[in-house]
């Protein structure tokens, strides 16, 4: 079955455009995210590991927790910042994708997550994409729906079947939280962790490994979020221009006053 022949009743193929995708990515990374968030930060001691997968020739499978509409946009920005040479694809509910056709231009394909027959179509489609692309990346939110970060992580079986289907792929977990610290805009905080290949390899073993690592990764990030300290993080996007209002900020700067919000003058218990 050719890529263009994938049955739309089970799967809606992407329609990647080398002209539209870079423009869309630039808009998301340079305009949309900085306009809505104060900063996108990644835990520094996981940054080298995150960058180390940029030049891998084998497929990369990225699993993310899913709590917000913003997750795909943050994933796109993360991939373009850390792995610019890789081509990414990602599944989305086909019914929703029909409403946002432009997302097909950046590598999003549509599936019907509640249709069991859709799984075989997705495996076949991903197999073909992996064979056709150089340095392919598949990004997934295996929880399958928006889930509060305080709830236990439960993943759908599809991601485990994918990992078992492609034994040469590298699998990594990306934990994300959106939280307010000092600025009027929220922070996007990210932690990266590799998922070791289980031995022996099976769908059940992958399901267990993915659940364990995603849970551990999210818990480690949550502890840093609760500490409310930017020191353990490296800023990927934004992080400056703190304050309340651009005109009031300018007035304070003209008077030699800092507009940065800080609690360093307070004594910590």
Helices and strands, with pairings:
Blueprint: E1 11-12, H1 20-36, E2 39-43, H2 47-52, E3 60-64, H3 71-82, E4 87-93, H4 94-97, E5 108-111, H5 117-132, E6 136-140, H6 158-165, E7 170-179, E8 187-194, H7 203-227, E9 233-238, H8 246-254
Parallel strand pairs: 2-8, 3-6, 3-7, 4-5, 4-6
Antiparallel strand pairs: 1-5, 2-9, 7-8
Helix pairs in contact: 1-3, 6-7
Describe the structure.
This protein has one domain (3-241): Glycerol-3-phosphate (1)-acyltransferase. Helices cover 36% and strands 19% of the residues. The chain has 8 helices and 9 strands. Strand 7 and strand 8 (187-194) form a beta hairpin. Helix 1 (20-36) packs across helix 3 (71-82) and helix 6 (158-165) packs across helix 7. It starts with 10 loop residues before the first strand and ends in a 15-residue tail after the last helix.
């Amino acid at each position: 079955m050719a890529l263009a022949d994938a049955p739309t009743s089970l799967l809606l193929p992407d329609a990647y455009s080398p002209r539209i995708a870079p423009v869309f990515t630039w808009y998301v990374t340079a305009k949309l995210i900085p306009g809505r968030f104060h900063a996108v930060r990644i835990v520094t001691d996981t940054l080298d590991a995150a960058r180390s997968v940029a030049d891998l020739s084998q497929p990369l499978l990225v699993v993310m927790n899913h709590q917000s509409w913003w997750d795909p946009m943050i994933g796109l920005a993360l991939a373009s910042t850390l792995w610019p040479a890789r081509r990414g694809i990602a599944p989305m509910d086909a019914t929703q994708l029909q409403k946002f056709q432009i997302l097909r231009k950046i590598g999003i394909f549509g599936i019907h997550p509640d249709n069991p027959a859709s799984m075989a179509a997705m495996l076949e489609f991903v197999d073909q994409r992996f064979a056709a692309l150089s340095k392919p990346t598949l990004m997934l939110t295996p929880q399958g729906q928006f889930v509060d970060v305080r709830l236990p992580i439960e993943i759908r079986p599809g991601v485990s079947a994918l990992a078992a289907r492609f034994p040469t792929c590298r699998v990594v977990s990306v934990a994300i939280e959106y939280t307010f610290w000092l600025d009027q805009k929220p922070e996007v905080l990210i932690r990266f962790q590799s998922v070791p290949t289980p031995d022996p390899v099976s769908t059940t073993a992958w399901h267990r490994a993915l659940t364990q690592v995603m849970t551990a990764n999210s818990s480690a990030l949550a502890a840093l979020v609760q500490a409310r300290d930017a020191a353990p993080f490296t800023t990927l996007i934004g992080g400056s221009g703190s304050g309340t209002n651009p005109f009031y900020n300018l007035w304070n700067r003209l008077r030699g006053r800092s507009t940065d919000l800080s609690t360093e003058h307070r004594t910590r218990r």
